[in-house]
Amino acid sequence: MKNYSLRFALLLAAFSALGPFTVDMYLSSLPKVMDFFGTTASMIQASLTASLLGLGLGQMIMGPLSDIYGRRLPLLISMILYILTSYGCAYAPSIEWFIALRFIQGAAASAGLVISRAIVRDRYSGVEMTKFISLLTMISNVAPLISPTAGSMVDYYSSWVGVFIFLSLLGLLLTGMTFWGVKESLPVQQRVPSNLSTLIGNYNGLFRNRSFMGYALVNGLLFAGVFAYVAGTPFIYQNIYGVSPQMFSILFALNGLAIILGSQCVKLLAGRVTERRIFLIGLSVAFIATAAILLTVLTHGPLSGMFISIFLFAVSIGIIGPISFTLAMESQGHMAGSASAVLGTLQFALGAVASPLVGIAGENSAMPFGIIIFVTSLLSIISYIVLVQRDKKITSDNKGKRIRTNSDSM
Protein backbone atom coordinates (compact mmCIF):
# COMPACT_ATOMS: atom_id res chain seq x y z
CA MET A 1 0.00 0.00 0.00
CA LYS A 2 2.85 2.40 0.87
CA ASN A 3 4.65 1.71 -2.42
CA TYR A 4 1.41 2.21 -4.33
CA SER A 5 0.74 5.46 -2.46
CA LEU A 6 4.26 6.72 -3.23
CA ARG A 7 3.91 5.90 -6.95
CA PHE A 8 0.49 7.54 -7.00
CA ALA A 9 1.82 10.60 -5.14
CA LEU A 10 4.70 10.92 -7.63
CA LEU A 11 2.21 10.78 -10.49
CA LEU A 12 -0.02 13.51 -9.03
CA ALA A 13 3.00 15.57 -7.90
CA ALA A 14 4.14 15.72 -11.53
CA PHE A 15 0.88 17.49 -12.43
CA SER A 16 1.13 19.79 -9.39
CA ALA A 17 4.69 20.69 -10.41
CA LEU A 18 3.52 21.98 -13.79
CA GLY A 19 2.49 25.31 -12.22
CA PRO A 20 5.92 26.17 -10.74
CA PHE A 21 7.69 25.01 -13.90
CA THR A 22 5.40 27.15 -16.07
CA VAL A 23 6.02 30.27 -13.99
CA ASP A 24 9.65 29.85 -12.90
CA MET A 25 11.54 28.16 -15.72
CA TYR A 26 11.91 31.23 -17.92
CA LEU A 27 12.73 33.75 -15.15
CA SER A 28 16.47 33.70 -15.89
CA SER A 29 15.66 34.20 -19.59
CA LEU A 30 13.58 37.38 -19.16
CA PRO A 31 16.31 39.79 -20.39
CA LYS A 32 16.81 37.66 -23.53
CA VAL A 33 13.07 37.52 -24.19
CA MET A 34 12.91 41.32 -23.82
CA ASP A 35 15.77 41.78 -26.30
CA PHE A 36 14.25 39.31 -28.77
CA PHE A 37 10.90 41.09 -28.92
CA GLY A 38 12.50 44.55 -28.62
CA THR A 39 10.07 45.47 -25.86
CA THR A 40 10.09 46.96 -22.37
CA ALA A 41 10.58 45.32 -18.98
CA SER A 42 6.97 46.08 -18.06
CA MET A 43 5.69 44.14 -21.07
CA ILE A 44 7.86 41.17 -20.15
CA GLN A 45 6.56 41.44 -16.58
CA ALA A 46 3.06 41.33 -18.07
CA SER A 47 3.84 37.89 -19.51
CA LEU A 48 4.62 36.66 -16.00
CA THR A 49 1.43 38.23 -14.63
CA ALA A 50 -0.55 36.63 -17.49
CA SER A 51 0.68 33.15 -16.58
CA LEU A 52 -0.20 33.70 -12.91
CA LEU A 53 -3.67 34.97 -13.86
CA GLY A 54 -4.12 31.92 -16.07
CA LEU A 55 -3.13 29.62 -13.21
CA GLY A 56 -5.53 31.36 -10.84
CA LEU A 57 -8.58 31.88 -13.05
CA GLY A 58 -8.10 28.60 -14.90
CA GLN A 59 -8.74 26.65 -11.72
CA MET A 60 -12.21 28.18 -11.41
CA ILE A 61 -13.01 26.71 -14.84
CA MET A 62 -11.11 23.42 -14.69
CA GLY A 63 -12.45 22.48 -11.25
CA PRO A 64 -16.15 22.55 -12.22
CA LEU A 65 -15.40 20.89 -15.58
CA SER A 66 -13.83 17.98 -13.72
CA ASP A 67 -16.97 17.71 -11.54
CA ILE A 68 -19.10 17.51 -14.70
CA TYR A 69 -17.03 15.35 -17.07
CA GLY A 70 -14.84 13.43 -14.62
CA ARG A 71 -11.17 13.99 -13.83
CA ARG A 72 -9.46 12.22 -16.72
CA LEU A 73 -10.96 13.88 -19.84
CA PRO A 74 -10.47 17.55 -18.78
CA LEU A 75 -6.93 16.72 -17.63
CA LEU A 76 -6.10 15.04 -20.94
CA ILE A 77 -7.47 17.93 -23.04
CA SER A 78 -5.67 20.47 -20.86
CA MET A 79 -2.32 18.71 -21.26
CA ILE A 80 -2.73 18.70 -25.05
CA LEU A 81 -3.56 22.41 -24.91
CA TYR A 82 -0.47 22.92 -22.76
CA ILE A 83 1.74 21.29 -25.41
CA LEU A 84 0.35 23.55 -28.15
CA THR A 85 0.60 26.80 -26.17
CA SER A 86 4.12 26.04 -24.91
CA TYR A 87 5.25 25.43 -28.49
CA GLY A 88 3.38 28.59 -29.52
CA CYS A 89 5.24 30.64 -26.89
CA ALA A 90 8.55 29.47 -28.35
CA TYR A 91 7.66 30.84 -31.79
CA ALA A 92 5.28 33.70 -30.92
CA PRO A 93 5.42 36.39 -33.65
CA SER A 94 5.08 39.32 -31.22
CA ILE A 95 5.11 40.18 -27.53
CA GLU A 96 1.30 40.53 -27.59
CA TRP A 97 0.94 36.97 -28.89
CA PHE A 98 3.49 35.79 -26.34
CA ILE A 99 1.52 37.34 -23.45
CA ALA A 100 -1.78 35.88 -24.70
CA LEU A 101 -0.26 32.42 -25.09
CA ARG A 102 1.27 32.64 -21.62
CA PHE A 103 -2.21 33.24 -20.18
CA ILE A 104 -3.62 30.18 -21.98
CA GLN A 105 -0.56 28.13 -21.00
CA GLY A 106 -1.15 29.05 -17.34
CA ALA A 107 -4.85 28.15 -17.60
CA ALA A 108 -3.96 24.76 -19.10
CA ALA A 109 -1.37 24.13 -16.35
CA SER A 110 -3.99 24.96 -13.71
CA ALA A 111 -5.78 21.71 -14.55
CA GLY A 112 -2.83 19.78 -13.14
CA LEU A 113 -3.06 21.69 -9.86
CA VAL A 114 -6.81 21.55 -9.31
CA ILE A 115 -7.61 18.11 -10.71
CA SER A 116 -4.75 16.34 -8.90
CA ARG A 117 -6.17 17.60 -5.58
CA ALA A 118 -9.70 16.58 -6.58
CA ILE A 119 -8.46 13.06 -7.39
CA VAL A 120 -6.99 12.83 -3.88
CA ARG A 121 -10.38 13.75 -2.38
CA ASP A 122 -12.08 11.15 -4.59
CA ARG A 123 -9.82 8.37 -3.33
CA TYR A 124 -9.08 9.29 0.29
CA SER A 125 -10.74 10.72 3.37
CA GLY A 126 -9.91 11.47 7.01
CA VAL A 127 -6.47 10.51 8.29
CA GLU A 128 -5.59 8.72 5.03
CA MET A 129 -6.22 11.93 3.07
CA THR A 130 -4.14 13.96 5.54
CA LYS A 131 -1.19 11.55 5.24
CA PHE A 132 -1.42 11.39 1.46
CA ILE A 133 -1.72 15.17 1.01
CA SER A 134 1.31 15.70 3.27
CA LEU A 135 3.26 13.20 1.13
CA LEU A 136 2.08 14.95 -2.05
CA THR A 137 3.01 18.35 -0.62
CA MET A 138 6.47 17.13 0.35
CA ILE A 139 7.15 15.87 -3.19
CA SER A 140 5.51 18.82 -4.95
CA ASN A 141 7.61 21.37 -3.06
CA VAL A 142 10.72 20.08 -4.79
CA ALA A 143 9.47 21.69 -8.03
CA PRO A 144 9.90 25.36 -6.98
CA LEU A 145 13.42 24.49 -5.79
CA ILE A 146 14.61 23.00 -9.08
CA SER A 147 12.56 24.79 -11.76
CA PRO A 148 14.56 28.08 -11.84
CA THR A 149 17.85 26.13 -11.98
CA ALA A 150 16.50 23.80 -14.66
CA GLY A 151 15.40 26.81 -16.70
CA SER A 152 18.79 28.53 -16.46
CA MET A 153 20.53 25.29 -17.54
CA VAL A 154 18.28 24.86 -20.58
CA ASP A 155 18.78 28.54 -21.45
CA TYR A 156 22.56 28.19 -21.08
CA TYR A 157 22.81 25.23 -23.45
CA SER A 158 20.20 26.46 -25.94
CA SER A 159 18.19 29.70 -25.64
CA TRP A 160 14.96 31.03 -24.14
CA VAL A 161 13.14 29.26 -26.99
CA GLY A 162 14.59 25.99 -25.68
CA VAL A 163 12.88 26.61 -22.31
CA PHE A 164 9.45 26.59 -23.94
CA ILE A 165 10.33 23.62 -26.13
CA PHE A 166 11.27 21.83 -22.91
CA LEU A 167 7.89 22.78 -21.38
CA SER A 168 6.17 21.49 -24.51
CA LEU A 169 7.98 18.16 -24.13
CA LEU A 170 7.04 18.13 -20.44
CA GLY A 171 3.41 18.57 -21.49
CA LEU A 172 3.81 15.66 -23.91
CA LEU A 173 5.13 13.48 -21.09
CA LEU A 174 2.21 14.43 -18.84
CA THR A 175 -0.24 13.74 -21.65
CA GLY A 176 1.14 10.21 -21.89
CA MET A 177 0.98 9.84 -18.11
CA THR A 178 -2.65 10.97 -18.17
CA PHE A 179 -3.56 8.56 -20.96
CA TRP A 180 -1.84 5.50 -19.51
CA GLY A 181 -1.44 6.25 -15.79
CA VAL A 182 -4.51 8.18 -14.61
CA LYS A 183 -7.68 6.18 -14.04
CA GLU A 184 -11.04 7.89 -13.68
CA SER A 185 -11.73 8.50 -9.98
CA LEU A 186 -15.17 10.16 -10.21
CA PRO A 187 -17.99 7.73 -11.10
CA VAL A 188 -20.62 8.98 -13.55
CA GLN A 189 -23.39 8.79 -10.94
CA GLN A 190 -21.46 11.18 -8.67
CA ARG A 191 -20.91 13.89 -11.28
CA VAL A 192 -22.78 17.19 -11.18
CA PRO A 193 -25.22 18.27 -13.95
CA SER A 194 -23.69 20.29 -16.78
CA ASN A 195 -25.74 23.47 -16.49
CA LEU A 196 -24.78 26.97 -15.46
CA SER A 197 -27.28 27.27 -12.62
CA THR A 198 -25.88 24.16 -10.92
CA LEU A 199 -22.31 25.43 -11.20
CA ILE A 200 -23.27 28.82 -9.79
CA GLY A 201 -25.21 27.07 -7.04
CA ASN A 202 -22.18 24.94 -6.18
CA TYR A 203 -19.91 27.96 -5.88
CA ASN A 204 -22.57 29.84 -3.92
CA GLY A 205 -22.85 26.88 -1.54
CA LEU A 206 -19.08 26.82 -1.05
CA PHE A 207 -18.84 30.57 -0.40
CA ARG A 208 -21.70 30.36 2.11
CA ASN A 209 -20.13 27.38 3.92
CA ARG A 210 -18.50 29.12 6.90
CA SER A 211 -16.24 26.26 7.89
CA PHE A 212 -15.00 25.61 4.34
CA MET A 213 -14.34 29.32 3.70
CA GLY A 214 -12.62 29.64 7.07
CA TYR A 215 -10.05 26.98 6.22
CA ALA A 216 -9.79 28.25 2.62
CA LEU A 217 -9.09 31.80 3.80
CA VAL A 218 -6.48 30.65 6.32
CA ASN A 219 -4.77 28.69 3.54
CA GLY A 220 -5.01 31.58 1.06
CA LEU A 221 -3.90 34.29 3.48
CA LEU A 222 -0.83 32.39 4.65
CA PHE A 223 0.12 31.58 1.07
CA ALA A 224 -0.17 35.32 0.37
CA GLY A 225 2.57 35.57 3.00
CA VAL A 226 4.59 33.09 0.94
CA PHE A 227 4.14 35.26 -2.17
CA ALA A 228 5.29 38.27 -0.12
CA TYR A 229 8.33 36.26 0.98
CA VAL A 230 9.18 35.27 -2.62
CA ALA A 231 8.81 38.89 -3.82
CA GLY A 232 10.58 40.54 -0.88
CA THR A 233 13.48 38.36 0.25
CA PRO A 234 15.66 38.74 -2.89
CA PHE A 235 15.94 42.46 -2.10
CA ILE A 236 15.99 42.11 1.70
CA TYR A 237 18.72 39.47 1.77
CA GLN A 238 20.89 41.00 -0.97
CA ASN A 239 20.33 44.77 -0.65
CA ILE A 240 19.87 45.10 3.13
CA TYR A 241 21.95 42.20 4.48
CA GLY A 242 24.51 42.15 1.63
CA VAL A 243 24.07 38.46 0.86
CA SER A 244 25.58 37.20 -2.41
CA PRO A 245 23.31 35.74 -5.12
CA GLN A 246 24.80 32.30 -4.45
CA MET A 247 24.11 32.52 -0.71
CA PHE A 248 20.60 33.78 -1.42
CA SER A 249 19.97 30.67 -3.54
CA ILE A 250 21.09 28.49 -0.62
CA LEU A 251 18.86 30.35 1.87
CA PHE A 252 15.92 30.14 -0.53
CA ALA A 253 16.46 26.39 -0.98
CA LEU A 254 16.66 25.87 2.80
CA ASN A 255 13.26 27.51 3.21
CA GLY A 256 11.91 25.15 0.59
CA LEU A 257 13.25 22.28 2.69
CA ALA A 258 11.48 23.82 5.70
CA ILE A 259 8.13 23.44 3.91
CA ILE A 260 8.98 19.81 3.24
CA LEU A 261 9.89 19.38 6.93
CA GLY A 262 6.50 20.80 7.95
CA SER A 263 4.58 18.46 5.66
CA GLN A 264 6.60 15.52 6.99
CA CYS A 265 5.58 16.52 10.54
CA VAL A 266 1.93 16.34 9.44
CA LYS A 267 2.48 12.86 8.02
CA LEU A 268 4.04 11.69 11.31
CA LEU A 269 1.38 13.28 13.54
CA ALA A 270 -1.67 12.25 11.49
CA GLY A 271 -3.57 9.49 13.26
CA ARG A 272 -1.86 10.24 16.57
CA VAL A 273 -3.11 13.82 16.96
CA THR A 274 -6.42 15.18 15.65
CA GLU A 275 -6.31 17.17 12.40
CA ARG A 276 -7.72 20.23 14.18
CA ARG A 277 -4.94 20.16 16.80
CA ILE A 278 -2.26 19.83 14.09
CA PHE A 279 -3.88 22.78 12.31
CA LEU A 280 -3.79 24.91 15.48
CA ILE A 281 -0.12 24.01 16.01
CA GLY A 282 0.68 25.22 12.49
CA LEU A 283 -1.34 28.40 12.97
CA SER A 284 0.45 29.14 16.25
CA VAL A 285 3.89 28.60 14.69
CA ALA A 286 2.95 30.91 11.80
CA PHE A 287 1.88 33.68 14.18
CA ILE A 288 5.01 33.40 16.34
CA ALA A 289 7.28 33.28 13.28
CA THR A 290 5.70 36.29 11.54
CA ALA A 291 5.73 38.29 14.80
CA ALA A 292 9.46 37.49 15.04
CA ILE A 293 9.96 38.64 11.42
CA LEU A 294 8.23 41.95 12.13
CA LEU A 295 10.26 42.41 15.35
CA THR A 296 13.49 41.73 13.44
CA VAL A 297 12.52 44.34 10.85
CA LEU A 298 11.58 46.95 13.49
CA THR A 299 14.79 46.43 15.47
CA HIS A 300 17.03 46.02 12.39
CA GLY A 301 17.95 42.60 13.75
CA PRO A 302 20.69 40.31 12.37
CA LEU A 303 20.45 38.09 9.30
CA SER A 304 20.35 34.99 11.52
CA GLY A 305 17.21 36.28 13.25
CA MET A 306 15.50 37.00 9.94
CA PHE A 307 16.46 33.64 8.44
CA ILE A 308 15.37 31.58 11.47
CA SER A 309 12.03 33.43 11.63
CA ILE A 310 11.36 32.89 7.92
CA PHE A 311 12.45 29.24 8.24
CA LEU A 312 9.85 28.69 11.01
CA PHE A 313 7.21 30.43 8.89
CA ALA A 314 8.03 28.04 6.03
CA VAL A 315 7.67 25.08 8.42
CA SER A 316 4.21 26.35 9.41
CA ILE A 317 3.21 26.54 5.74
CA GLY A 318 4.25 22.91 5.33
CA ILE A 319 1.95 22.05 8.25
CA ILE A 320 -1.05 24.23 7.38
CA GLY A 321 -1.07 23.54 3.61
CA PRO A 322 -2.01 19.83 3.72
CA ILE A 323 -4.06 19.97 6.92
CA SER A 324 -6.22 22.95 5.85
CA PHE A 325 -6.87 21.16 2.55
CA THR A 326 -8.03 18.05 4.42
CA LEU A 327 -10.30 19.97 6.79
CA ALA A 328 -11.77 22.10 4.00
CA MET A 329 -12.35 19.22 1.57
CA GLU A 330 -13.62 16.63 4.03
CA SER A 331 -17.31 17.34 3.35
CA GLN A 332 -16.97 18.37 -0.32
CA GLY A 333 -16.72 14.99 -2.03
CA HIS A 334 -19.65 15.69 -4.38
CA MET A 335 -17.93 18.78 -5.84
CA ALA A 336 -14.27 18.30 -5.00
CA GLY A 337 -13.18 19.95 -8.26
CA SER A 338 -14.99 23.21 -7.52
CA ALA A 339 -13.84 23.19 -3.88
CA SER A 340 -10.24 22.56 -4.94
CA ALA A 341 -10.57 25.43 -7.43
CA VAL A 342 -11.65 27.86 -4.71
CA LEU A 343 -8.71 26.82 -2.51
CA GLY A 344 -6.20 27.26 -5.32
CA THR A 345 -7.63 30.48 -6.72
CA LEU A 346 -7.67 32.17 -3.31
CA GLN A 347 -3.94 31.48 -2.98
CA PHE A 348 -3.14 33.17 -6.29
CA ALA A 349 -5.64 36.03 -5.83
CA LEU A 350 -4.43 36.98 -2.35
CA GLY A 351 -0.82 36.41 -3.40
CA ALA A 352 -1.30 38.78 -6.36
CA VAL A 353 -2.45 41.46 -3.89
CA ALA A 354 0.38 40.90 -1.40
CA SER A 355 3.34 40.68 -3.80
CA PRO A 356 3.33 44.24 -5.23
CA LEU A 357 2.81 45.80 -1.79
CA VAL A 358 6.14 44.40 -0.58
CA GLY A 359 8.07 46.87 -2.73
CA ILE A 360 5.91 49.89 -1.97
CA ALA A 361 8.65 51.58 0.13
CA GLY A 362 11.47 50.78 -2.28
CA GLU A 363 13.94 47.94 -2.64
CA ASN A 364 15.99 48.97 0.42
CA SER A 365 13.17 48.81 2.97
CA ALA A 366 11.96 45.62 4.67
CA MET A 367 9.17 47.36 6.57
CA PRO A 368 6.31 46.56 4.11
CA PHE A 369 7.40 42.90 4.01
CA GLY A 370 7.44 42.63 7.82
CA ILE A 371 4.02 44.25 8.17
CA ILE A 372 2.38 42.30 5.34
CA ILE A 373 3.60 38.87 6.41
CA PHE A 374 2.51 39.53 10.02
CA VAL A 375 -0.89 40.81 8.90
CA THR A 376 -1.47 37.65 6.81
CA SER A 377 -1.02 35.43 9.88
CA LEU A 378 -3.13 37.76 12.05
CA LEU A 379 -5.97 37.76 9.50
CA SER A 380 -5.75 33.98 9.18
CA ILE A 381 -6.31 33.62 12.94
CA ILE A 382 -9.25 36.03 12.77
CA SER A 383 -10.71 34.06 9.84
CA TYR A 384 -10.44 30.83 11.79
CA ILE A 385 -12.08 32.29 14.91
CA VAL A 386 -14.88 34.13 13.09
CA LEU A 387 -15.73 31.47 10.51
CA VAL A 388 -14.65 28.02 11.75
CA GLN A 389 -14.96 28.29 15.52
CA ARG A 390 -18.17 30.32 15.40
CA ASP A 391 -19.65 27.85 12.90
CA LYS A 392 -18.84 24.99 15.29
CA LYS A 393 -20.44 26.94 18.16
CA ILE A 394 -23.59 27.66 16.13
CA THR A 395 -23.83 24.00 15.08
CA SER A 396 -23.33 22.86 18.67
CA ASP A 397 -25.99 25.29 19.96
CA ASN A 398 -28.47 24.14 17.33
CA LYS A 399 -27.91 20.51 18.27
CA GLY A 400 -28.45 21.39 21.93
CA LYS A 401 -31.72 23.16 21.13
CA ARG A 402 -32.98 20.16 19.15
CA ILE A 403 -32.12 17.80 21.98
CA ARG A 404 -33.93 19.99 24.51
CA THR A 405 -36.95 20.31 22.21
CA ASN A 406 -37.16 16.57 21.74
CA SER A 407 -36.81 16.07 25.49
CA ASP A 408 -39.63 18.55 26.21
CA SER A 409 -41.96 16.89 23.71
CA MET A 410 -41.47 13.56 25.46
From TrEMBL:
Pfam families: MFS_1. One of its GO terms (cellular component) is plasma membrane. Gene3D superfamilies: Multidrug resistance protein D (1.20.1720.10). InterPro entries: Efflux_drug-R_Bcr/CmlA (IPR004812), MFS (IPR011701), MFS_dom (IPR020846), MFS_trans_sf (IPR036259), Sugar_transporter_CS (IPR005829). It is a multi-pass membrane protein. GO terms for biological process: xenobiotic detoxification by transmembrane export across the plasma membrane. It is found in: Cell membrane. Keywords: Cell membrane, Membrane, Transmembrane, Transmembrane helix, Transport. The keyword Transmembrane applies. This is Bcr/CflA family efflux transporter. It comes from Brevibacillus nitrificans.
